[in-house]
Amino acid sequence: LGSDPGRADWNADLATTVNKVGVVLLSLGRYGEAEKALQREHDLLTSALRTEPKNTRWTQRLAANVNFLGRLSEETGAEDAALERYSHEREIEAGLVAHDPANTSWQRQLAVTDSNIGRMLQHRRDPGAEKSYRHALTRLEPLLSKDASRVLWIRDIATIHEGLAVLMLDRGRAAEARSEIEAARATLSTAPPTEVDTRTLLTRKIPLH
């Protein structure tokens, strides 16, 4: 990079290497070092995208990078920063989905980001939490209706219903919480019998008797 720091493809290639370092450091709980590496990746991808703003592969990688930064903030208890980063991630992913609505991977990731935002808002007792969760369901449920075999989507939807159940309980709306748990269990019941962990995801968590 020393001879031509403006080469977008070089910046993007280096970002890939830096990402691997950052993700490993994050998994090890070395948060300060992980944040430096992930921020470096962010800067490299941002620089590359200034040259090629329509490069969707780099844009998707930038969204993933911001997700890792959001997770880092969440794991270290910096929930305001986590919410800000997840919101930034959402902006990037919404642009990708607008570019290619048929891309189910991008649709799914945008829904997961809405769910993450809902969780952060829920922790803050923000009334917008339910809206974010509902947006996620509205995006995921049509995907699953077209391909009911996708266990990842099944798990995503069940987890969102679980979040809504906790939210309803926090608001004193026990009947609605029970409905959300029933919806989660009904969703999980469609998973293949071999997916034991998926099928029992919620059974221990929220007693509603």
Salient structural properties:
single chain, 209 residues, mainly alpha, 9 helices
Describe the structure.
The protein has helices at residues 8-27, 31-51, 56-75, 79-99, 104-123, 129-146, 151-170, 174-188, 196-199. With 209 residues, it is an all-alpha fold. The radius of gyration is 19 Å and the shape is globular. The chain starts with 7 loop residues before the first helix and ends in a 10-residue tail after the last helix.
Q: What's this entry about, in short?
A:
With 209 residues, the protein is an all-alpha fold. The protein is 76% helix and 0% strand.
Give the SSE map.
Elements: H1 8-27, H2 31-51, H3 56-75, H4 79-99, H5 104-123, H6 129-146, H7 151-170, H8 174-188, H9 196-199
Helix pairs in contact: 1-2, 1-3, 2-3, 3-4, 4-5, 5-6, 5-7, 6-7, 7-8
